[in-house]
Amino acid sequence: MNTSSTAQIKKRAPNGLERDKPIPVRLTAEERAKVQDMAEKESRSMASLLLMAARLGFMEYERNPRAFANLPHIGD
């Protein structure tokens, strides 16, 4: 690979992500299909879409922690 083509490679992941500390996530088949569909519509990877959703969830939680009290727990 020459340097001119290397310079044109765009980094997809934002700076500051801990690439060596991934968090595995298990989804139901329905949830996975939904994530896949949404990611395709947004032209994102599934990981990128889940990161975006997590960040939106963090903001919502910080604004109103009680909103999360009625969410179903894993296994419900």
- Distance between the ends: 51 Å
Percent helix, as a range, is: 40-55%
Low-confidence stretches: none
The assigned structural class equals: mainly alpha
Biggest β-sheet: count, sense, barrel? Answer: none
The tally of helices reads: 3
* Total number of beta strands: 0
Report on this structure.
The protein is mostly helical and 76 residues long. Helix content is 47%, strand content 0%. The chain has helices at 3-7, 29-41, 46-63. The relative contact order is 0.07.
Task: Quickly describe the structure.
The chain is built from 3 helices and no strands. By secondary structure, the chain is mainly α. Helix 2 (29-41) crosses helix 3.
Feature tags:
mainly alpha, 47% helix, 3 helices, 76 residues
SSE inventory with pairings:
Blueprint (H helix, E strand, L loop, with lengths): L2 H5 L21 H13 L4 H18 L13
